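INFO  loader      accepted 1 record
INFO  loader      residues=520
INFO  predictor   begin
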Amino acid sequence: MFSFLSVEFALLFIAFFMLYWAFKKRPDIQNMLLLIISHAIIYLMAGMMAVGILFVFSIVIYVIARQIIISHHKKTWMTMGIIITLINLSVFKYYEFFRANISRALEMWQLDNTGLMANIIFPLGVSYYSFQAISYLVTLYRQSVVYEKNEQTKQSEQEKQDENNENPIFYLYFWQALTHFSFFATISAGPITRVNDTKGLIDIMGKPCGMYDQLNEPESRQLLYPKIAFALIVLALAKKWWLAGYLADNWVDPVFANPAGFHSLEVLTAIYGYTLQLFLDFSGYSEMMVAFGLLLGFRLPMNFNAPLLAHNIRDFWDRWHISLSTWIRDYIYIPLGGSRKGFWFTQLNLIIAMVLSGIWHGSTFNFFFWGLLHALAIALLNIGDLACQKISGHVKGRNFLANTGIIGKTLGVLITVHFVVFAFVFFRATTLDEALLVFNALFFNHINVAWTNNPLYLLAILALALAWLIYPLFHRHQKNVGRLILKMPSVIFYVLCFMIFMAVVILAPSGIPGFIYANF
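INFO  predictor   done
INFO  writer      dumping tokens
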């Protein structure tokens, strides 16, 4: 199986890396090479059908973007582009859900349902490049409207030029648009990139990372922070291939496959283990893609900022899957009205946005319920903050626990983490019934199922507890670790990376695991 963790990909990337940097002074040729290798990787991972669907979709979005620039009916073209994108996403992502439910309804009415039996493939990355397309069209529309208004006002030529420099139009030419949507480092599971610099989306060095400027690099492109890139790759392999793989094979998957056969404490540790597995899997993947971007001269947004240290559920979504949460903020929550229509309408907008976030992850009811749980948690937190503000009489009522010192902040982290952990049961289960079976085993299996006395299992529990304790310390000194890496002699650094890599290869489970978020 061709994967970002496979030897075949490593060899392909090394060959491409050397060819790519042979044209260091020609970013246009580098972009073309990047387009070719991205489509080749998509083909090797998902087949020619996925390549064809993405290619046709990219052409359609390019044509619509062109019309937004030149047409007087800009909003109509933008709306058409969004509708086409959502239809494309819905057909491929939610067909199975609608097919199953319509089929059951037809059976109830004793009608023929054989026409609904056709299978539709799920194209690689459709959820991610669809969101990139919507953000691109909306950004282009907004900027072209501003540009047109500036042209219509009676300004001097210098004033027009200054105004337009402040509000550039991020229009991508044909080959650039194809590269933006197909870039192999973002196609499978994000991060969801934007053409423009966006509040909340920053690279590993804290710099903005809009793709327009990077695809239109006028001078020679530079290899960015190679030591940091290699450190990220090694860290990602350890997180995804070794740790997440171990948790999945030996802990999480067996329990979720048959929760009735395990003691309540084993079910509880599997629930904790899944949250850690998901974080290690997805953050490891995201860091690996950021590293590939750096090695090719691109700054990609960091997707995580210590989400398991969040002191409330609002803070969690500022730290978890940041490229998605900022997208939801900018293209669902704010267009619905954001916080402009009063407190209660704000809560309604938040609930709608979070439920749609849940549905984006999957078409089954358990994802809807997971999104609804987070929506209600955020709304209840905001209501609690409002009550605390009114009781205390000052703004410190907001984030009440976090403002009461280290004890309150620690309590806030514990409450948030436990809410996230138990809500993820619905995320992991394939149906609501499966999730309820897990909770049933958690609450009742302490009576009739024996607790394991396997010393390795108990050791793993201690290791998990230790990881939760070490994690805050590592995050606090993350920047110092980065500085140490940059100052470390190259020979020592790369030898150390190789040693860690070999340790991961030896300790990791056999086989090449898939990435959890590639399924979304």
